[in-house]
Amino acid sequence: MSFYRRARAILGDALGHLNDDDGWAMASHVSLSALMAVFPFLIFVAALAGFIGEADLASRVAALIFDTWPKEVAEPIADDVQNVLRQSHSGLLTVSVAVTIYLASNGVEAVRTALNRAYRVRETRSFFYLRAQSLLFVVGGAVVTLVFAFLGVLGPLIFDWIARHVPEIMQFQTTFLFARLIVTGLMLAMFLVAAHLWLPTSRPPAISLWPGIVVTLTLWLLTAWIFGYYLQRFADYAAYYAGLASVVTAIYFMYLVALIMIFGAELNAALARRREP
Q1: For 1, which DSSP code?
Q2: Distance of alpha carbon 32 from its chain centroid, rounded?
Q3: Which helix H or strand E contains 274, and what residues bound it?
Q4: Is 247 helix (H, G, I), strand (E, B) or coil?
Q5: Are 70 and 227 in contact (CB under 8 A)?
């Protein structure tokens, strides 16, 4: 079989199973759950940052998260997020923060359900194990994003120090500015790898997961650019949704992001089926 026919067969298999596994509806579930989890997650990050004495890092975490969103989608949501983060969240070990972590973990559970559907496996683990794993994802994600945010603060300081001693390096200043996007992309890649490895009950071997992950990251970047261009040139959601335009726009974008993530898992499953005897 030629490469073209084989690729077409795999793509058709992935799209067919995306439809059979209710991928379109699951993308709605994941997008809404993820959007609702953003605020609780960032509130927890703010509380954790305040606990370690670096309250400003929470705002930088929010900036990292929204860097990959189209500007027209991110700006209204980011403004609301910054307003939330300016409030005091000093009580880390309180019931309110525990509830916040739990709400943020609902987004992880939505991703787990979508991946189980894509890999066609039935969940057999206990509720307490699953919820504990989701909470661990939230806490681990908060720590990782704080570390990346700290490196984002430290990086320009190191560059300025080197530039004072080696002025020739200033010609690479523009290139250095792209490091922020690289950091954000690395965070997304880490999340995808961790989600595919540990959230579903079963999945193809770890070495076989890279095609879906690479396709997901690539399509995410293309979607962010195309959707941003579409909003600039054609869309006028304010005419249809009035004050809800920013929220609806964010939900549309998150829906596309979730659909692409599910398609990446379906692609891995299709490749695994092709390898079977």
Answers
A1: -
A2: 13
A3: helix 245-275
A4: helix
A5: yes
Chain centroid to CA 41: how far? 12
CA distance 252 to 135: 27
User: Rounded to whole angstroms, how far apart are CA atoms 256 and 243?
Assistant: 22
Cα torsion 116, 70, 101, 111 to 10°: value is 0
Average pLDDT over residues 70-75: 77
pLDDT at 58: 67
Query: What sign has the CA pseudo-torsion 195, 121, 32, 231?
Result: positive
Mean pLDDT, residues 230-253 taken together: 73
Neighbours of 97 (CB within 10 A): 20
* pTM of this prediction exceeds 0.70: yes
Between 32 and 231, whose confidence is greater?
32
Buried b (16+ CB within 10 A) or exposed e, 154-163: eeeeebeeee
If you average pLDDT over every residue of the chain, what do you get? 79
CA 271 to CA 10: how far, in whole Å? 7
pLDDT digits (tens, 9 = 90+) for 127-181: 999 999 998 998 888 877 777 666 665 566 566 666 677 776 666 666 655 666 6
Residue-wise DSSP of 184-199: HHHHHHHHHHHHHHHS
Q: How crowded is the C-beta side of 180, counted as CA atoms within 13 Å? A: 17
Q: Measure the CA–CA gap between 197 and 186, rounded to whole angstroms.
A: 16
Residues near 54 by beta carbon (within 8 Å), at least 6 away in sequence:
146, 150
Distance, in Å, from the CA atom of 250 to the CA atom of 237, rounded to the nearest integer, reads: 11
Average pLDDT over residues 227-245: 71
Predicted pLDDT at 92: 47
Q: Are 138 and 44 in contact (CB under 8 A)?
A: yes
